[in-house]
Amino acid sequence: MRSPRKAPGSSQIRRDALIHFPDNLLQALTHLYNASLASGYFPSCFKTALVALIPKPHKDLTDPKSYRPISLLEFLSKIFERIINTQLRWYLEDHTLLSHKQFGFRSHHSTQDALNIITNYVHNNKDRRRKTVLVTKDVERAFDTVWHAGLKYKLCTKFNFPPLIKILLCNFLDDRKLKLKFLHHVSGTIRMHAGVPQGSTLSPTIITLYTNDLPDPTHTDSLTILYADDCTHLARHDALSGVVRRINDELDTVSRWEHRWRIKTNATKTKVLFLNPRKRPPYDNIYLNSFDRLQAPLQITHSCTILGLTFDTDFRNNASPCLLHSEGTRPLQCLTTTFELGSEGGRRWAGTAKQGSKGQGGAKRGKSEGSS
After folding, report:
1. PROSITE patterns in the record, alphabetically (predicted)?
2. Which of 257, 289, 248, 313 minimizes the C-alpha distance to 101?
């Protein structure tokens, strides 16, 4: 079985326990999932997360921001989220609803694709002796600060989902709670008013939906690349002053969009890299936006890392691409769930998690502990 020692939620029910569930319990669980899908209801018992605080490397451990909050969710909730997420991603790709700028958490899109586009863009500019500037942006606490009201508005208006899907996704966000776990101490229940659980199967897709309407570049020959919440902007021009003006235009447009949707960029982690500038510093200042008069100019660096690949000012890669080879998300083999969701859209949402099912709605245990 894959990752049998994954940390469980508050109930302490682990992944390997599902293999030993009797058939009647698996059938009841299947009926529960079908009923939840039929009504657009995300069970409230799945909405409480035990949040473990994981220290970030080389950080001051007395600062609360030096910890990464990881949500430990109920395993039964993770199964339900995976069923929803699989069909949601299929629906988005089948209807071409995701932005062409987004390369994260998508089928047939990878870090290599994003890096190829960036390197080809810079190489073409170098061949034509054009100036290029690259800005890498870091969203501050992207998972923890998602504005629920704004996210619900986008889910209900921008993707043409069938009504039950809208209700289900909005219900996923409502009345979420957490308990903080630090060392051997667990806090009382805290209600979440923003953010999505970091560690949830569904959260990365929801983050992708929230940032899907990021504005296209202001200038037609500029470039924007998204990988989940990581954003890279590139601009080019024949003159150095022109490329600075263009990248400021791009950053200003995106900053106004971020301000509207309560997204905050971490300016201290945002880096500016001039590629093949043929002129050494100082360069003209580059700012995140034009409306904050008290902000400091962005940091200009001689190298930066994008999706695991490091670039320097002379456009030499100092490191090989960090390619992520996942083991592959094999389907869960203990459940079979099929439900027709959204008759208006005429789309079948089939949560397939099967191997050796009994009947149409039944479920069967895996044959061995290594069959997940």
Report:
1. RT_POL
2. 257
- What residue spans define the domains of the chain? 15-312
Encode pLDDT of 111-135 as tens digits.
889 999 999 999 899 888 898 999 9
Contacts of 127 (CB under 8 A, 6+ apart): none
Q: What is the pTM of this model?
A: 0.77
* DSSP of 34-60: HHHHHHT---GGGSEEEEEEEEPTTS-
Here the contacts of 144-150 (C-beta below 8 Å, separation 24 or greater) are 144/69, 144/194, 144/195, 144/198, 145/194, 145/195, 145/262, 145/263, 145/264, 146/194, 146/195, 146/196, 146/206, 146/207, 146/210, 147/194, 147/261, 147/262, 148/173, 148/193, 148/194, 150/210, 150/261, 150/262
In tens, the pLDDT along 45-55 reads 899 888 888 88
Q: Give dist(CA 153, CA 176) in Å, integer.
A: 18
